Amino acid sequence: MVSSKSHTTSWTPVRDDDEFKLTWVHRVWLLIGLTSVAIALIKAIAGSLASAGLWPCYSLFTAFLGYLAADLTSGLYHWAIDNYGNPDTSVYGSYINTFQAHHKWPTDAAYYEAVSGTYKIARGVAFILLPLDLFVTNPLFLSFLGAYGGFSTFSAQFHEWAHRPKSSVPRIVVMLQNMGLLLPPRKHAKHHRPPHEGSYCTISGLCNDFLDNYGVLRRLEMILFSVLGIRPRSWN
Fold this sequence. Notes:
Radius of gyration: 19 Å
Low-confidence stretches: 1-9
């Protein structure tokens, strides 16, 4: 059981600009992560075309499912980081400070270097995808993995674009935001209204309606509170 002490909220987020300064190691991890995604997608396309029939359509559909799954995962991760733990929590404590500092200084996200929020995710994607790239041959599974890994890798960038004025964002991004395919600023703005208890998804925000309208995360919070006695930060 996790003690409630490890989830106290009696701390103040600290702005750490050095966290977003890039090194060549960060860029290498991003390259490795994107390479693992590219391998999965190339194998998926080649396998679908070789199978002919409706396989290319099936692969597109599973890629879309990967896109939705990435959005959902970003929301669940964001919710967990926002509500549980503190900077002293093992493994992900530094991420908690980052997310809470972002609530306090949300416009800072518009000034981060482009790779700064993506290399950490790319590193995780590489560790998971590279072994699967070697052994998985099913094009449907590969298209799902490639889309999931690719959109997950750039989730921090999509999030950052939702904080920028449209004049500083590429036109294609603004168009996709207006279509609701990437996270629109107006939709993400809901998350930055205290107590920051909804609109957690950061890729497209499409899964926010499901999570928020059906109270999925509120139910999870109640379960955790009833079993472990841990209150999420949003309740405060």
